[in-house]
Write a structure and sequence with these properties.
Belongs to the protein N5-glutamine methyltransferase family. PrmC subfamily. The chain has 2 domains: 65 residues; 195 residues, Rossmann fold (3-Layer(aba) Sandwich). The longest helix has 17 residues. A 7-stranded mixed β-sheet has the order 7-6-5-8-11-13-12, sandwiched between helices. The chain is built from 12 helices and 13 strands. The structure holds glutamine.
Length: 285
Amino acid sequence: MTDKILIFEALNGASSFLKENGREEAVARLLLQHELGLSHAGLLASMREEMDRDAFNRYWQRIEHHAAGTPVQHLTGYEEFYGRSFAVNEHVLIPRPETEELIEEALRLIALYFPEKKIKIADIGTGSGIIAVTMKCEIPEAAVTATDISDQALHMAKKNAEGQRADVTFLQGDLTEPLNGETWDMILSNPPYIAYAEATELSDSVRDFEPHLALFADNNGLALYEKMVKQLPELLKKPGIIGFEIGYAQGEAVKNMLKAAFPEANVYVKKDINKKDRMVFCVNI
Ligand code: GLN
């Protein structure tokens, strides 16, 4: 056995292995870029070069972990969100592209209703910190506070805020509880919303590797919206805006909760790019 291996051979072997194991072949390229520290273009230009046996062994170990279900983001240690890189681990939900659409709508509403941008924003259940950190980066004039019940998640969120030099206040506690005694112009949350009954429909990479505390909620996945909405009338300023990410079947239920709590508000469900109900906004002006 030589101590070198051709890069394109490593890639081909890994791609076939992942395919045989029912995984996406493209992950072979991503993990190879990660191991070699190369961009996509850089990898393409290096295909006929060799890699060390040690590097190959490390690469192959990750390929095997991924074949067994470990999410690629746990192997590389990060995921991109709204153009920035966020560190992730087994204690936080991996950022999803749907949540970028929550950010987009929140930014559109700020431009419309708070053009001076000097507002207070809260992110409930911040996990990796993506919502809070992205809002602070996009609206530096805003004061952003984020909560989470999990110390391990908050540790990750703080690390991500430091990575982006985003000055966010992090508070430990259950949902809105750490926010009590203050009021907010905008309250955002992507809480756990999957019903326990739906666990069997999730892929093994999600069900077996992502934190259940971040995925599941009681009462068909609606329990945490109910709990938050009870507290929100005391926490939201007027004018004030609430934005929730939701499960595709929860639009009507969450809209009705918010409508009951804020009878004068404009409450609407918004679809994601896959045309599924994905967000509910409550604009109480
Ligand atoms: N707010 C974080 C996110 O949007 C965490 C969400 C969660 O853990 N349910 O990714």
